[in-house]
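#onboarding

Welcome to the new folks! Below is a worked example of what a typical request in this channel looks like: someone posts a single protein sequence, and someone else replies with the predicted structure as tokens. Don't worry about understanding the tokens yet, we'll cover that in week two.

Example request:
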Amino acid sequence: MTSTPRIDLLRHGHTGQRSYRGQLDDPLSPLGWEQLRATADGGQWDVVVSSTLQRCAAFAEALATQRGLPLRLDARLMEYHFGDWQGVPIEAIDRDFGPALGRFWADPVNHPPPAGEPFAAFRGRLSAALDQIAVEHAGSGRRVLVVTHGGAIRALRCVVEQRPFGQMVEIEVPHASLHPLAWPPRAP
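Example response:
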């Protein structure tokens, strides 16, 4: 028995959208479903926890049903809310708000998008969701699959790897990619 569960973060698959989708509730594209099935094939988990947005929840529900696994949906695992930039094509944001976009990616804590979610709130809700998973499955040795979003995975990896959030943009998180996560984070 281990004291902490093994947690794998899984980014949702492709949606066919080319903008900061944030908390818009897009479905997976057929390609997104294929990507997720291929990634999950052969993976071994005991529990599935997912964002409530359908690009995560639909696959999580299908996988849990297929494998007879417990599933819990958790709204705290939703993507970052990009405020006024949500749903706007990235090229348009770069064209119209290039300097602001650069400041956001360099320092999202102090330079959120206009009307965007405060970064402390984003980090706080993600951390609370992972804290609950760690507590629920402490000492069990369970393997927990957490289906979530690219920004959420980047933020959680920054917390665990003790990296500044300005380095989020450097962390590659392709669609349907798996990211093992040691939670709770260790003190430096």
